[in-house]
Write a structure and sequence with these properties.
28% strand; 7 helices; Protein Transport Mog1p, Chain A; 297 residues; alpha+beta; 2 domains; eight-stranded antiparallel β-sheet
């Protein structure tokens, strides 16, 4: 008897919908690809034991609410090993998010987005994220790496929906190679340092985008669980980052650049390192002016 699950979880504005039984991650990885065969010693890790496998980077995956990591090694005589680390992130939004953490590389056209650099191919599709590595870039190993990525992606039977928050980014900030989706202040500060304090009140139930423009300014868009949280976050942000500003939505910083911030409903928008007061304020206004659909979720 097939068990069909319908789960609708609303966590502070983060909507996750699953409409089918969960696939076993092991079944989504092939046993063999172009002569490379699984060594039969799969290892599985959850959000607690991931540190036993990737100590330094484990916190990054936890910041995106990872559920499970399956690691499989493929071997072929005379060739480098292929190691596939396959993550169930629990939602397409978080699979997309962990993918955006490192966008440096060449798009190899795998899944719903991929990058390849220095023997590492990473991609996302639906709620899954994969990182496949070789320790030596031979032509044959690279072909197997690409084929393994394509095979895994093809075994995932549907695409996932990107975070709808992306829809409200102004065109100037919408370059997909410069946009990160996140929940954690640590991840935000890694890509664009704002403060040692969590001045935007980020957390697992809060969604945020960081979009960096070519002129070095940055737009941060945050969606909170409710308007009260958004109002409190904006008030705390202004107190910490815009003290003494004559205009509560705009302030010039010590480096001569501009910071602007405001909110509409439960969405807050802030611009950092704006090159002029007008441009910083306009970016915030335009972002919040496009929040109709995002606020209704």
């Amino acid at each position: 008897m097939m068990l069909v699950l319908f789960v609708l979880v609303l966590l502070g504005g983060v909507t996750r919908v699953e409409t089918r039984a969960q696939e076993s991650p092991a079944k989504l990885l092939p046993a063999e690809v172009l002569g490379w065969k699984s060594d039969g010693a799969d290892r599985s890790f959850d959000a607690e034991t991931i540190f036993d496998y990737i100590d330094g980077a484990g916190e990054v995956y936890r910041a995106y609410n990872m559920k499970l990591c399956l690691s499989r090694t493929y071997t072929k005589d005379g060739q480098p090993e292929l190691i596939a680390d396959f993550f169930d992130m629990g939602s397409a939004a978080d699979a997309f998010g962990i993918f955006t953490h490192d966008l440096d590389g060449e798009d190899w056209g795998v899944g719903q987005g991929s990058v390849y650099k220095g023997g590492l191919l990473s991609f996302w599709k639906d709620r899954y994220y994969a990182a496949i590595t070789i320790d030596k870039e031979t032509d044959e190993a690279q072909k197997a790496l690409l084929e393994l990525g394509r095979t895994i992606a093809a075994s995932i039977d549907r695409d996932g929906k990107k975070p709808d928050l992306l829809e409200i980014l102004p065109d100037f900030y919408a370059d997909p190679h410069r946009v990160r989706y996140l929940h954690s202040p640590v991840i935000l500060n890694y890509h664009f340092f704002i403060s040692r304090e969590n001045v935007l009140a980020l957390g697992p139930e809060v969604e945020a985008l960081l979009a960096k423009a070519v002129d070095k300014c940055a737009l941060v868009v945050v969606r909170y669980p409710d308007e009260a949280r958004a109002a409190a976050a904006l008030s705390a942000f202004r107190k910490a980052m815009m003290p003494g500003a004559g205009d509560p939505t705009l302030v010039q910083t010590a480096n001569g650049m501009w910071t602007a911030a405001d909110r509409k409903g439960r969405i807050l928008a802030a611009v950092f390192h704006g090159v002029s007061a007008d441009r910083a304020a306009a970016a915030v206004r335009e972002t919040l002016g496009r929040t109709g659909s995002a606020n209704r979720l």
